[in-house]
Amino acid sequence: MKITVSELLVRFMERLGIDHIFGMPGAHILPVYDSLYDSSIKCILAKHEQGASFMAGGYVRASGKISACITTAGPGATNLVTGIANAYVDKQPILVITGETPTHIFGKGGLQESSGEGGSLDQNALFDSITKYSKLIERTDYLANVLVRAAKILLSDSSGPVLLSFPFNIQSELVDDAILDQINHKKYHHHYYHDINASNELVKLIATAHAPVIVAGNGCIVSNAQAQVSQLSQIMSIPVTSSLKGKGVISEYSELSLGSLGVTSYGGAYDYIVEQADVIIFLGASFNERTSYVWNDTLLKDKKLVQIDNNIEQLEKVFKADIAILGDIAAVLNNVNQQLQTQLEQGQIQRKDCLDTLMEYRAYSLENPDRNVTDLRDRFPLVEYFFSELQTHLTKNIMVFDDNIIFAQNFFNVSAENRYYPNSGVSSLGHAIPAAIGARMAENKPVFAIIGDGGFQMCCMEIMTAVNYQLPMTIVLFNNSTMGLIRKNQFQQYDERYINCDFINPDYELLSRSFGMNYYKISTQSDLDGLLPSLDYYEGINLIEIRIDKNVFPGYTSKR
């Protein structure tokens, strides 16, 4: 049966399991919007295309499913760039649909033309470096091949954004709906036949190690390997620390948790690894600048290194591993755990005797806290108290999107039943609110967006998206009337020559009223007492404003 390209595209998205699409309409993409009218896909109207792309990313992080965003040509597409770049770095499967002027005016200077002809903007070239695949579809005879390739990328284990741009006239052309039968719309799993010999070597290494440590990264969450990581930790009594994006892979309340590892973390993980560990097992952790303490050689010195990842590009990217295994983390650990459990039961090996040492490190840390920890607590008592209340009263089934990172990394213990989503990717300010909106579309769970006042003013218009769709959320706003990180750097490195960091804030209580939000101002700890348990997380939109001093800065750890 003959159907229009726009209708085929909508059916293609439905088959991929896409149920929400975030964006803004424009004249050059209206045929696709018209086909969405009768679709099961829910169209979410954002206030800005960057917000739409962040929403799509938040939806992916919360659901694990493919998401989509849609916009018109020219400025609509260019406004997507930061959010799609963020998704590319985070390997998020997002289908990006953009319009284009009709093909017969390519090169003539049509309004918002982005074909790259005649000196016009080359829209696809703009996206080439931040997508896994981008294609301007000027004819329908190869449309099937384009959709096959797009689906394969979006459904793969190592995914990323895909951009398909449709000229206005192409959207209305007729094609055979049998094209859809050529497309595999089921999840592509790379069946890595990981090296069993390498797994066996890992079992031997763990069995003979004196003090192994697991570094768990976001790859464990993406692979749904949390249970396997926790099992390995428990079977052999192995401590676990996490990258920032890996917070919560195992509960940070566990007696075997070392908390978070990284240059903005002031916990004891670094000291324990340097002073005790002889084997480090990296699970889906890329060992980037933050996690590695700016690639500090001391952290890895004189240790056996193991790395397991399903992305070959990550293996041995920044260090040479004694054992490197390409494969699904859950599958590899299932094999390793089974062997270790059997050998334990047969009395061939013993669990590691690390708990007493861990307790000693914790006791020492309490009695002799790191200067940075003390400074952070002394300087930001309200912030610490907020996170204490959050983890006390909301122990499970919440999602936290965080633009600020350093506070949560040190003050927020993430349970295995909560999800913490730091601002990763390209670390764009203004990410938390739209990403939280996308996540709340995916999951009926309380969602928090934690953000500074600088980032808030980049994206606060998207709160009206939440209002429009009656989407409950809670925004925690740290207000210090400055771009905190910039002011900190200018204080520490540029002799207090402050420029373009300070600004005047609006009255957030009045702003909240105009948006239809509930407003709470926090000036003392008593203002927080009883607040979080009393909020309505399933009906209301809440703004909690916490004032902090613009001249008080967190310091980075001095470990080098």
Structure, described:
By secondary structure, the protein is of the alpha/beta class. It has 3 domains: 2-182, Rossmann fold (3-Layer(aba) Sandwich); 196-361, Rossmann fold; 369-547, Rossmann fold (3-Layer(aba) Sandwich). Helices cover 38% and strands 17% of the residues. The strands form 4 sheets. A 6-stranded parallel sheet has the order 3-2-4-5-7-6, with helices on both faces. It has a 6-stranded parallel sheet with strand order 11-10-9-12-13-14, with helices on both faces. A 6-stranded parallel sheet has the order 16-15-17-18-20-19. β6 (133-136), α7 (143-154) and β7 form a beta-alpha-beta unit. α3 (49-63) runs parallel beside α5. The longest helix has 17 residues, at 329-345. The radius of gyration is 25 Å and the shape is globular. The chain starts with a strand and ends in a 13-residue tail after the last strand. The mean pLDDT is 90.
Protein structure class:
alpha/beta
Average pLDDT works out at: 90
Indicate the radius of gyration in whole angstroms. Answer: 25 Å
CATH topology of the largest domain: Rossmann fold
- Major sheet: size, sense and barrel closure? 6 strands, parallel
**DSSP helical segment count:** 24
Low-confidence stretches: none
Task: Summarize the SSE layout with pairings.
Elements (H helix, E strand, L loop, with lengths): L1 E3 H11 L4 E4 L6 H7 L5 E4 L3 H15 L3 E5 L3 H4 L2 H9 L4 E7 L22 H5 L5 E4 L6 H12 L7 E6 H4 L2 E3 L19 H13 L3 E5 L1 H5 L3 H11 L3 E3 L14 E4 L8 H8 L2 E5 L20 E6 L13 E4 L2 H17 L9 H13 L3 H9 L1 H13 L5 E4 L3 H6 L7 E4 L9 H11 L4 E6 H7 L3 H6 L4 E7 L4 H10 L14 H8 L2 E5 L2 H4 L2 H4 L6 E7 L13
Parallel strand pairs: 2-3, 2-4, 4-5, 5-7, 6-7, 9-10, 9-12, 10-11, 12-13, 13-14, 15-16, 15-17, 17-18, 18-20, 19-20
Antiparallel strand pairs: 1-8
